[in-house]
Amino acid sequence: MKLRPCQPEDVPRIMDIGQRAWAPIRAMQKKELGDALYAHLNPNPETEKGRQIAEHAQNYPQWTWVCEREGPLLGFITFFIDRDKRVGEILNNAVDPELGLKGVGQFMYRGVLNYFREKELFCAKVQTGLDEAHAPARRAYERAGFTQQLHDVTYFCEL
Asked: What is the largest CA-CA distance in the chain?
């Protein structure tokens, strides 16, 4: 496996991976929020995650990487560096859920964390949900070394 910067021709594939990988999260959100609130907050749920990924790849190509081995791309990872605070943040990332491969996420996290170290950043951060749909992500981040946590809750009230 290897990590490399995303190229424009990779963007449709990583958009597709992201859309499919976030399907369980979208389903959980719809269940928790109800149809009306979910539809209002997510007018384009089938394309929104892909749009976010493509926008990041366009605006920050140096901070959008893909993971590959022979054949189709295995996954992607996006990140951001706040040079003033010396903080690197892992953003959207996913492995193609249909491949059923283990270790790809950890490979990507190690690569990005090593890049942060090379840039002499002070710390790395990542945000994820506390719901059951995000449990695999939480376990993966903990395995990658993210151990200190702050907790947050977002409340909604239909008007």
From this structure: 52
Instruction: Compute the residue count for the chain.
Output: 159
Interval 87-108 mean pLDDT? 92
User: What pTM value is reported for the model?
Assistant: 0.90
Element (H, E) at 72: none
Helix (H) or strand (E) holding 91: strand 87-95
Q: What is the pLDDT of residues 33-69, one digit of tens each?
A: 999 999 999 999 889 999 999 999 999 999 999 999 9
Domain ranges of the chain: 2-143
Cα 40 to Cα 85: distance, rounded to the nearest angstrom:
35
Fold of the domain spanning 2-143: Aminopeptidase (3.40.630)
Question: DSSP alpha helices (H): ranges in 2-157?
Answer: 11-21, 23-33, 35-41, 48-59, 104-118, 135-143
- 114 contacts: CB under 8 Å, gap ≥ 6: none
User: Which residues partner with 126 through β-bridges?
Assistant: 90
The Cα–Cα gap between 155 and 140 comes to: 26
Q: Please state the separation of Cα 58 from the chain's center in Å.
A: 16
